[in-house]
Write a structure and sequence with these properties.
The protein folds into two domains: 106 residues, Creatine Amidinohydrolase, Chain A, domain 1, CATH 3.40.350; 247 residues, Creatinase/methionine aminopeptidase superfamily (Creatine Amidinohydrolase, Alpha-Beta Complex). A six-stranded mixed β-sheet has the order 4-3-2-1-5-6, with helices on both faces. The protein is 29% helix and 24% strand. The longest helix is centred in the middle third of the chain and has 27 residues. By secondary structure, it is α+β, with helices and mostly antiparallel strands. Strand 5, helix 4 and strand 6 form a beta-alpha-beta unit. It starts with a strand and ends with a strand.
């Protein structure tokens, strides 16, 4: 039997692991304990006690912080002498526990089992991915109904179409599906789209890539989705078509390579070579890095970038959920990115994203 208790003291908004472990969401910090004997407890303030009893995961004992209770006292009450905490554990509490004689170990990833998703979790991620698709379709519909002016700029309802208008349409769509609106939603066109995290600003240009990147979080389940599509208003230039074809084929290649036991970092480099073999090598253009300049993807769940990072743990396991998002970026052209969310299976992967990946020349 292990002799170390796993401890969390935080609010779910700061560390979603406590929600994953307890099943209880609140804005205030509370204490989660998994004793060496496997007993799971949460200590919470009195006014949240009844709600926690109703909502906490099965097998969780919900207790109130009593008057005069201290966390050190609670640990002693349960016979806990050695604890493991995450690397974002409150430093003041860490120091107090150390000074009080507790053995405290810091873990980079306190609950490694969290990365394997249950069928329920995968369903929740699929649901929020649908919300992302519906919201993104609203932006696409605006672009479809817009017109191209003589200046090469795009107009919607006789007014200049801007990145801000597209982003607002996406945000309103997410709210309609009970999703939180995160900062950083991308609706970028032209040269802005050549920078992967440039959210876009100002007027939208025709005949250039328009990158739409949506990553909502459900306000019900608290799981994230992540979705990127690239469209063009008007006819796409030949080089943009070539970029799109390369990214589309690279993603298809990557999807075929994802399976339990696969090495995601190795796959990342294979995709980079796949791009280079088609004439899209990484290089520097005008002093700016160009080509496939970011990683292939990341783990996803209750965090948008869920740990462990692939640089520390690259081997995929059945039940994990990851994004697959190759892209190409050139400052004199713009950027193209296609992103799906998939769940890893024993012999492959299951795509949780349904929206079309055909190049839309709207």
């Amino acid at each position: 039997m292990k002799k170390t208790a796993r401890i969390l003291y935080t609010a779910p908004e700061q560390d979603a692991t406590i929600y994953w472990a307890s099943g209880f969401w609140t804005t205030d910090p509370f204490l989660y304990i998994e004793t060496p004997a496997g007993e799971r407890l949460i200590y919470i303030s009195g006014f949240e006690y009844e709600r926690a009893r109703k909502e906490a995961n099965d097998g969780i004992t919900v207790l109130q912080f009593g008057k005069g209770d201290t966390i050190r006292g609670i640990f002693r009450k349960h016979g806990i002498k050695r604890i493991s905490v995450s690397n974002n554990f409150p430093i003041r509490l860490y120091n107090k526990l150390k000074r009080s004689g507790f053995k405290v170990e810091i873990e980079d990833f306190l609950f490694p089992e969290r990365k394997i998703k249950t069928s329920r979790e995968i369903t929740e991620i699929r649901t929020v991915q649908r919300a992302a698709e519906k919201a993104l379709e609203r932006a696409i519909e605006i672009i479809r109904k817009s017109e191209i002016g003589q200046s090469g700029y795009v107009y919607y309802e006789r007014k200049p179409l801007t990145s801000e208008i597209l982003r607002g349409a996406i945000q309103r769509g997410l709210l309609d599906y009970d999703c939180a609106v995160p900062q950083g939603i991308i609706a970028s066109s032209g040269k802005d789209s050549a920078e992967p995290h440039n959210i876009g600003k100002g007027r939208v240009r025709a005949y250039t890539p328009i990158v739409l990147d949506v990553f909502p979080r459900s306000q019900i389940s608290h799981y994230w989705g992540d979705l990127t599509r690239t469209v063009v208003k008007g006819k796409a230039p030949e080089r943009v078509k070539q970029m799109y074809d390369a990214v589309y084929l690279a993603q298809s290649f990557a999807l075929r390579g994802i399976k339990a036991g696969g090495d995601f970092l190795k796959l990342n480099e294979e995709v980079r070579k796949f791009m280079a073999d088609r004439g899209f090598e990484n290089n520097v253009v005008g002093g700016v890095e160009a080509g496939f300049i970011h990683s292939l993807g990341h783990r996803l769940g209750l965090d948008i970038h869920e740990g462990p990072n692939f640089s520390k743990d690259p081997i995929l396991q059945e039940g994990e959920v990851v994004t697959v998002e190759p892209g190409l970026y050139y400052p004199n052209i713009g950027g193209v990115r296609i992103e799906d969310v998939v769940s890893v299976t024993k012999n492959g992967c299951k795509n949780l994203t349904r929206i079309s990946k055909q190049l839309l020349e709207l």
